[in-house]
Write a structure and sequence with these properties.
single chain, mainly alpha, 2 helices, 78% helix, elongated
Length: 58
Amino acid sequence: MRFIMTFIVSFLLIQMVYYVLGNMNSVTYSFANATIMSIIFGILAIVIGESTVSEPDV
């Protein structure tokens, strides 16, 4: 479930950033480019999160 939520949040955040920055620079909005970047960002967030956080040994 946390992986699904990571992809959903990264998708929404990157779409928003692409839209806002595109409007600020008078560039056309590209849904495909923003989606590719959100997938890459989601994978990086999962890899970093899984590699840095460890379960305590009981």
